[in-house]
């Protein structure tokens, strides 16, 4: 054992007498980095430059082991048997390794933390009531306990299996700790499946590097993870409007027909997305960034025409390059593409080929800084033309025989590749437009810095609708702040069919229009609401209009994201000490005050869990108190929606697109809670407003601003219609 500046070095002995170096570095009062194996000073590919690197600490050495003490946590290193434990300042054990997970014969369910044959693993205790969350976008139950899967980014081909587009090596525990694996290697997680008393993470690597993080509740743990890997950016206000898309609009006339019909039908919409058919090379899920002007003549003129109607344009892209394109010829000549390992093990085997689609492709090498700039220049040319946002699709299929410019082994680059790709696209948009935004599918640790991500390709079923919600909430519990999914589903079952039923389309759209970001998208059949007839069209219009009237509320909540509060989130985020919320993965909060419980059937009833506090039924003003389960009956036109007692909902005007005009006049819906005073901040890109709400048994008073007009205030009651008044004036409830 040797204490050095900022770290503690220990050498352990394995069961074969081998020496195992362990490097321990307190990086903040609540987080300690532990590196086991070689390469302790190897730089991270995942941390941001301003990640915390040191903290005040002291070492206590006693006969039983060592204690590394910071102002908030104690890392205890037991000598015999060797074991790491993380305790909080009060001495409560948050995390502990499990060195003795055995059966009656003495055999191990999980071996103690160790290494063998190129693998290294961490084995930790799992307490009886402990729940586990995170690890990326997965489509099963939010509580990962009892599950097992690999952290290896793939095209999931849907939302029904343990395959994942987005893997994040961040595990959160209801016991008040998180483990962040600062690694890009493949990791296999057994989360209490082989044994109910332990979980284990096994990496194919020559080391383990983990951050043990303590925090009371998921928000605190996520904030400390963000300190390491970066805080989410806040997308522009118009991105919170409705996006319309399909795979795909084949020509300019199709795009313009949809845009004009949107306005004729009075369906609010901000973004129209064009999938691969805008490019000359659109087969095989690759492209060359060159417009197909036979199908999209005068693209700049089309973009201007759409802008005049209030639409922004989104374009599809891929990191894969057609082999018969000029882009591939140039990229190969300049060594901007992933190379294939030659039989001799060198870099001269030609370009690495991406298979699995209609045609093989090459892949851009994002470890080469010049290749990144080349790729960014192609994006920026389109963005300068007027394109508002790019959709960086795919990136899960890096060829296994690839050789990267910077020498990163393919197995270490595979999970990282989507992050490097999306960073390039995000930074291109930032450079041209001043805001950062993408519409990405794959992801890894750090991808939260580059929103927004959607959940891949669900089938057109209610089961897939529910799985898509679980995937989005799982992604949010892995550090993301924004998420979306294909409203209506992407493909039909059987696969030769495509459109969802009108009832499924309505239910999925209700959920999507009351989520972080809202995009309708499908394989071939239209996803425009008029394609589903009445009453689907009218119901869709109603919810789209509701979303746009809630834009002041949604965007103000989104601007709180850098503080670690996602716009949409599962109930466990806000009620981490309520064990019931560990298993509620079909409801969520939208902003601070709305609780949404989607219907996964055309009509009928569902059980809704209302956590602690008072709640109003949004549609009827019925007052309910949690915690409790209720049975809710809903016809097709109604989604169960609740408002937290004490809330003040800012409501804007009817809009056809987000920036049609300023969000004035504002009005306010007050849902009285407990008597007393509360305060609320409301901000957008143009103003910062502050309000104070006073409630007593007989009246409510909302004061503040500043506003240049007398805003309407509606006080909701359980025993009658809302009472209308004005800001700055008391409203009598009796």
Compile the SSE list and pairings.
Elements lengths: L1 E3 L2 E7 L5 E10 L2 E7 L20 E5 L2 E5 L3 E6 L4 E6 L4 E4 L4 E2 L5 E3 L3 E3 L2 E7 L6 E5 L11 E4 L15 E7 L3 E5 L5 E5 L6 E7 L2 E8 L3 H12 L12 E3 L7 H13 L6 E4 L24 H10 L3 E6 L2 E3 L3 H8 L5 E2 L20 E3 L5 H17 L3 E4 L9 E2 L6 H4 L3 H17 L28 H15 L9 E2 L14 H12 L4 E3 L15 H14 L1 H8 L9 E2 L1 H4 L13 E3 L3 E3 L7 E14 L5 E12 L6 E4 L3 E4 L15 E4 L5 E8 L4 E8 L3 E7 L6 E6 L2 E7 L4 E2 L2
Parallel strand pairs: 21-22, 21-30, 22-23, 23-27, 29-30, 38-42
Antiparallel strand pairs: 1-2, 2-3, 3-4, 4-20, 5-6, 6-7, 7-8, 8-9, 10-11, 12-13, 13-19, 14-16, 15-18, 16-17, 17-20, 18-19, 24-26, 25-28, 31-32, 32-33, 33-36, 34-35, 34-36, 37-38, 39-40, 40-41, 41-44, 42-43
Structure, explained:
This protein is of the alpha+beta class and 734 residues long. 18% of the residues lie in helices and 31% in strands. It contains twelve helices and 44 strands. The strands form ten sheets. It has an eight-stranded antiparallel sheet with strand order 1-2-3-4-20-17-16-14. Strand 42 (712-717) and strand 43 (720-726) form a beta hairpin. Helix 5 crosses helix 7 and helix 9 packs parallel to helix 10. The chain is globular, with a radius of gyration of 27 Å. The mean pLDDT is 96.
């Amino acid at each position: 054992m040797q204490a050095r500046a900022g770290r503690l070095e220990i050498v352990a002995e394995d069961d074969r007498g081998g020496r195992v170096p362990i490097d321990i570095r307190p990086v903040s009062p609540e987080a300690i980095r532990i590196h086991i194996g070689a390469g302790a000073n190897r730089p991270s590919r995942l941390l941001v430059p301003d990640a915390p690197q040191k903290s005040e600490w002291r070492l206590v050495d006693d006969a039983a082991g060592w204690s590394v003490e910071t102002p908030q946590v104690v890392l205890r290193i037991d000598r015999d048997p060797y074991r790491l434990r993380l305790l909080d300042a009060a001495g409560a054990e948050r995390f502990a390794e499990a060195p003795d997970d055995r059966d009656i014969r003495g055999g191990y369910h999980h071996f103690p933390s160790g290494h063998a044959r190129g693998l290294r693993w961490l084995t930790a205790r799992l307490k009886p009531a402990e729940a586990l969350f995170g690890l990326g976008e997965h489509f099963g139950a939010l509580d990962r306990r009892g599950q097992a899967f690999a952290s290896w980014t793939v095209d999931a081909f849907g939302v029904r299996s343990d395959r994942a587009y987005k893997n994040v090596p961040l595990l959160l525990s209801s016991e008040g700790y998180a483990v962040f694996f600062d690694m890009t290697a493949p990791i296999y997680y057994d989360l209490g499946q082989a044994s109910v008393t332990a979980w284990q993470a096994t990496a194919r690597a020559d080391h383990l590097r983990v951050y043990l993080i303590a925090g009371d509740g998921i928000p605190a743990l996520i904030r400390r993870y963000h300190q390491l890997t970066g805080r989410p950016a806040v997308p522009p206000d118009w991105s919170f409007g409705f996006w319309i898309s399909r795979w795909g609009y084949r020509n300019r006339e199709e795009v313009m027909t949809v845009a004009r019909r949107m306005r004729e039908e009075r369906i609010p919409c901000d973004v129209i997305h064009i999938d691969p058919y805008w490019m000359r090379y659109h087969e095989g899920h690759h492209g060359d960034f060159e417009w197909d002007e036979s199908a999209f003549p005068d693209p700049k003129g089309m973009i201007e025409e759409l802008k005049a109607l209030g639409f922004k344009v989104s374009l599809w892209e891929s990191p894969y390059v057609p082999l018969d394109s000029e882009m591939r010829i140039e990229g190969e000549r300049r060594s901007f593409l992933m190379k294939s390992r030659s039989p001799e093990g060198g870099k001269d085997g030609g370009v690495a080929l991406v298979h699995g689609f209609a045609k093989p492709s090459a892949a851009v090498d994002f470890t080469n800084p010049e290749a990144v700039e080349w790729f960014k220049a192609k994006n920026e040319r389109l963005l300068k033309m007027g394109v508002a946002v790019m959709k960086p699709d795919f990136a899960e299929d890096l060829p296994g025989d690839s050789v990267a410019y910077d020498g990163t082994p393919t197995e270490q680059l595979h999970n990282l590749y989507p992050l490097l790709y999306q960073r390039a696209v995000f930074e291109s948009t930032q450079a041209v437009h001043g805001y950062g935004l993408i519409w990405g599918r794959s992801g890894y640790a750090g991808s939260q810095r580059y929103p927004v991500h959607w959940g891949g390709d669900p089938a057109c079923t209610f089961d897939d609708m529910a799985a898509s919600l679980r995937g989005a909430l799982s992604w949010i519990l892995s550090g993301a702040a924004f998420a979306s999914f294909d409203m209506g589903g992407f493909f039909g079952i059987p696969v030769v069919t495509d459109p969802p039923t009108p009832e499924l389309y309505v239910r999925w759209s209700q959920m999507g229009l009351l989520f972080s970001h809202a995009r309708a998208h499908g394989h071939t059949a239209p996803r425009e609401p008029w394609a589903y007839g009445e009453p689907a069209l009218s119901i869709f219009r109603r919810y789209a209009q509701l979303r746009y009237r809630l834009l002041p509320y949604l965007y103000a909540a989104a601007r709180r994201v850098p503080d670690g509060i996602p716009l949409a989130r599962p109930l466990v985020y806000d009620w981490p000490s309520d064990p019931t919320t560990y298993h509620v993965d079909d409801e969520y909060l939208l902003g601070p005050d709305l609780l949404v419980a989607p219907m996964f059937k055309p009509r009928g009833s569902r059980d809704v869990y209302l956590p602690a506090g008072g709640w109003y039924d949004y549609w009827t003003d019925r007052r309910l108190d949690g915690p409790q389960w209720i049975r809710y009956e809903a016809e097709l036109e109604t989604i169960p929606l609740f408002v937290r007692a004490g809330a003040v909902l800012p409501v804007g005007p009817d809009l056809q697109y987000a920036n049609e005009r300023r969000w004035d006049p504002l009005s306010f819906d007050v849902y009285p809670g407990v008597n007393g005073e509360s305060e609320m901040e409301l901000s957008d890109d143009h103003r910062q407003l502050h309000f104070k709400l006073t409630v007593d048994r007989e009246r409510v008073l909302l004061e503040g601003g500043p506003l240049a007009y007398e805003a309407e205030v509606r006080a909701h009651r359980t025993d009658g219609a809302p009472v209308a008044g004005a800001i700055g004036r008391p409203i009598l409830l009796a």
